[in-house]
């Protein structure tokens, strides 16, 4: 299944901790449509819009949540349940 998700990650710390989160995002086999990062007091919040196979999106979320500096990973689906365009074949 192909999903589009907005993922917001709250990180305790500064640029180094935010960079670790973004390195995990870079390794994921998903497409990124947007990224916004901001600092709120002692926290960094990165919100990214991504799309890809559900298991790949889940992989990215689990890897981010496993980092000790990550306080929360909040997904909010944008679109769900449409066929994977990479594997769908239409024959005449």
Rounded to an integer in angstroms, the radius of gyration calculated over CA atoms is 14 Å
Kindly provide the name of the CATH class: Alpha Beta
The overall pLDDT average reads 86
User: Strand pairing plus helix content: what structural class?
Assistant: alpha+beta
Biggest beta sheet summary: 4 strands, antiparallel
Supply the CATH superfamily name.
ACT domain
The second-level CATH architecture is 2-Layer Sandwich
How many structural domains in the coordinates?
1
Number of helices: 2
> What is the CATH T-level topology?
Alpha-Beta Plaits
Give the key terms.
Alpha-Beta Plaits; 92 residues; 27% helix; four-stranded antiparallel sheet; 4 strands; single chain; alpha+beta; globular
How are the secondary structure elements laid out?
Elements lengths: L1 E11 L2 H13 L3 E10 L2 E11 H12 L4 E13 L10
Antiparallel strand pairs: 1-3, 1-4, 2-3
């Amino acid at each position: 299944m192909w999903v589009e998700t907005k993922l917001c990650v709250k990180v305790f710390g500064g640029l180094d901790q935010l960079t670790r989160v973004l390195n995990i995002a870079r390794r994921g086999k998903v497409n990124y449509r947007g990224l916004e990062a901001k600092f709120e007091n002692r926290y960094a919040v990165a919100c990214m819009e991504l799309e890809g196979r559900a298991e790949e999106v889940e992989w990215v979320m689990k890897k981010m949540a496993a980092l000790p500096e990550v306080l929360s990973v909040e997904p909010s689906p944008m679109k769900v349940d449409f066929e994977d365009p990479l594997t769908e074949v239409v024959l005449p």
